[in-house]
Amino acid sequence: MEEVGAEEQQRFCQRQRLKAAVHYTVGCLCQEVASDKQVQFSKQTIAAISEVTFRQCENFAKDLEMFARHAKRSTITTEDVKLLARRSNSLLKYITEKNEEIAQLNLERKAKKKRKPEDGNKDSLEPDVDVGEQ
Amino acid sequence: YKAGLSHYMKLFSFYSKMPVEKKALEMVEKCLDKYFQHLCNDLEAFSAHAGRKTVKLEDLELLLRRQGLVTDHVSLHVLVERHLPLEYRQLLIPCAFSGNSVSPAQ
């Protein structure tokens, strides 16, 4: 019984840390918007936005997993992300543009790596890793 | 196509359980038109995503899941059971017939 309790505690802690990180990022973004638009965000608003973001991430994760499984893959790719953004045209356009940018960057990096003689066969792994970081 | 729509109108008045103005019904007709357009686009995108050219039941299930109709608690079979008449249910849900065969074949 105690072990189960400890595990739960750990999970809760992890969740809180994740939430704190999201809250911090949301705060930074809100500050940017505030200085841009000359409006103030109350602390409660920022907290609400971060909570919504956290929940939205759960939905996104589930949907992306579903899409990847639908295409009989176990790795989520940019195609799945594009499918997720299909609901709104402007969002889809934006994401497609970003995707092309990232692909371009990856190509450039690959070209740079190919000039160096070592680790030539690592290149095939490169795109997926980089996309995950963005 | 018009006859099919009148069927949906009957369905709509059945679910609304109160008298509906004629203008409202026309609006519903327009909405249904849009709905089917969206539906077809989505199904096309999903089947293309899975590398197919044929729309399969999986694509429809994914769509219903995206629409929030199919969830972890309510499966597609439950919805079929609830909303479709018996002859369609028999087509969609595996049921055992005599002769040790399951229909539909899976």
TrEMBL record, chain A:
Keyword terms: Cell cycle, Cell division, Centromere, Chromosome, DNA damage, DNA repair, DNA-binding, Kinetochore, Mitosis, Nucleus
Keyword Cell cycle attributed: yes
Disordered, as annotated region: 109-134
GO biological process: cell division; DNA repair; replication fork processing; resolution of meiotic recombination intermediates
Subcellular location(s) per record: Chromosome, Centromere, Kinetochore; Nucleus
Family, similarity comment: Belongs to the TAF9 family. CENP-S/MHF1 subfamily.
Protein name according to UniProt: Centromere protein S
Organism: Mesocricetus auratus
Lineage: Eukaryota, Metazoa, Chordata, Craniata, Vertebrata
